[in-house]
Every structure is written in structure tokens, then in C-alpha cells.
Write a structure and sequence with these properties.
262 residues, mainly beta, 13-stranded mixed sheet, three-stranded mixed sheet, 28% strand, globular, binds 4-O-acetyl-6-O-sulfamoyl-alpha-D-galactopyranose, binds zinc ion
């Protein structure tokens, strides 16, 4: 399908996405810069109930380097069962990260203009309203993405040890592997009560404005060594180091960001 999109190089870098994918030029795009002073506290937003996110042992979880990120496909037993207007079923998780030196952060959302080191996205589709991801992906409230920031910690995060060591097995674009055990809950922050919510889009082409975003305020910590491996192991479609795979903040326009906390 013609020219391939990229983040920063070639004919279809992110500045030009809308020329091939019109939705990328819409008024409800993601990511955004979250400005704490302009967020509206909504005490009615309840903490999400994540069902089936814990230890899964006899799975066959597919992990792939798709040229833009590393992605793990998730089983439909993982669901958001409370906290949104509908129930949402997990589809996949993937990350966005920066460059190989300490200054080059690579989260997609920013908070008061500050970019975090990296960002995790857990993608779900609205399984109350739609049969599958494909049917939901371009509908309003069709998708729910949970976003988590990463920051440096003093210690290795042992819940990420398997994930980090598996990266070298999917070094090249198109490479994949199967993972037998996965515990997504342990890869998230313990405290899920502080979050931001807004209506947005997929952060890559085709940029459909179908996504309710929940961006958690509490970051996940990884060691410097773990971050270094994340930022330097994978290769993109042109066999260059896959880094800085984030989209810059998009205009908020008429939207309001809500927070669960003061
Ligand atoms: C990554 O993000 C995923 C890809 C796509 C994209 O590149 O590997 O599958 O995800 C849901 C979807 O189409 C956009 O997803 S995102 O908005 O969560 N970043
Ligand atoms: Zn993403």
C-alpha cells in the first residue's frame, strides 16, 4: 500500500501523515500534552477493574517486532470490567521509547511539557458494542487504551526481566516469538487510582478518533540498564535502530482532560 509511514524520516514522516491518512489531521488526535492546571477533576470517575490481568501460565502469547514497536498480543480473558461506560477486551500491548542517551525521552503523552522516558499502551476494544477489534477500531468509544509512563528507578524491575531479555529474540522487523507465561498486572504500577481521561485517537496512522484514553499518573520504574536495552535492541524496517517511536503532542482543541484526583 504505497509509501510507508515513519516517525521522522522519508516521505511520510509524522508531519505528512494526514496526506495519506486524513484522520491524522482531525481535531481529536493523540497524544496530547496534559496540563495539570487545566485538568478538570471528576470525582465520579472510578478506578478501573482489570479482570484476568494477573499470572497466565499456559498461554501462547505472540510477541513481534512490527517495525514500529514491540507488541505482545493479549488474550480475550483480559478485560476492563468496571470504570468505563462499557466493558473492553484486551487486544495487545506495546511501547514507545526514546533514543540511546539519557536526554532522549520517548513517551507520547507529556505532562506540563515534560516527556517521560517511555510509555506503555494496553489496547482494548469495546466488546459490549462490537464483535472484534477490526469492527471497533474506527467507531467512537470503540477502543480504550491504558497508558503508563516509565521512569528511572534504582533497581531492576524484575517483573520486566523476561520481557527485556526476550527483546533480542525479536531484534529484526518481522521477527516474532511465543511467550508461555505473562503477568501484565505485575508490569503495571501498584496504584491505579490516579489517572487522566480524555477522548482521542490512535497515535499512528490511520489515526482513527475512536479511543478513550486513560493515562496513569503513577509511573512504572525500570533500571537504567533495562531502559538502555529497550532503546538499543530493536531494528526498524530499514535495519536501523528502532528508537524515538513517538508522535508529538497534538492540539487539544475543544476537548477537556479529566482527572480522578485533585
Ligand atoms: C503501535 O501502535 C501498534 C499498532 C497500532 C499503533 O504501533 O503496534 O498495532 O495499534 C491499536 C493499533 O492499531 C497505534 O496504537 S496506539 O494508539 O495505542 N499507539
Ligand atoms: Zn501506542
Amino acid at each position: 500500500d504505497g509509501v510507508h509511514w515513519t516517525y521522522s524520516e522519508g516521505a511520510l514522516d509524522q508531519i505528512h501523515w494526514a496526506e495519506e491518512y486524513p484522520a491524522c489531521g482531525g481535531r481529536k488526535q493523540s497524544p496530547i500534552d496534559i496540563q495539570r492546571r487545566h485538568v478538570r477533576h471528576n470525582p465520579n470517575m472510578l478506578e478501573l477493574e482489570l479482570t484476568g490481568y494477573g499470572e497466565m501460565t499456559n498461554g501462547n502469547f505472540f510477541m513481534i517486532n512490527n517495525g514500529h514497536t514491540v507488541q505482545i498480543n493479549l488474550p480475550p480473558t483480559m478485560m476492563i470490567t468496571k470504570g468505563l461506560a462499557d466493558r473492553y477486551t484486551a487486544v495487545q500491548m506495546h511501547l514507545h521509547w526514546g533514543g540511546m542517551n539519557l536526554e532522549a525521552s520517548g513517551s507520547e503523552h507529556t505532562v506540563d511539557g515534560i516527556r517521560y522516558i517511555a510509555e506503555l499502551h494496553v489496547v482494548h476494544y469495546n466488546s459490549d458494542k462490537y464483535k472484534n477489534f477490526d469492527e471497533a477500531k474506527d467507531k467512537p468509544n470503540g477502543l480504550a487504551v491504558l497508558a503508563f509512563f516509565y521512569e528511572y528507578g534504582h533497581f531492576e524491575n524484575t517483573y520486566y526481566s523476561d520481557f527485556i531479555s526476550n527483546l533480542r529474540k525479536v531484534r529484526y522487523t518481522g521477527q516474532s516469538m511465543n511467550i508461555s507465561r505473562l503477568n501484565v498486572r505485575s508490569m503495571l504500577p501498584e496504584n491505579l487510582s490516579h489517572f487522566f481521561r480524555y477522548d482521542g485517537s490512535l497515535t499512528t496512522p490511520p489515526c482513527f478518533e475512536s479511543t478513550v484514553w486513560t493515562v496513569f499518573d503513577t509511573p512504572i520504574t525500570l533500571s537504567q540498564n533495562q531502559i538502555r536495552i529497550l532503546e538499543s535492541t530493536l531494528m526498524d524496517m530499514e535495519n536501523k535502530t528502532l528508537w524515538n517511536d513517538y508522535r508529538i503532542a497534538q492540539p487539544l482543541n475543544e476537548r477537556v482532560v479529566e482527572s480522578s484526583f485533585l
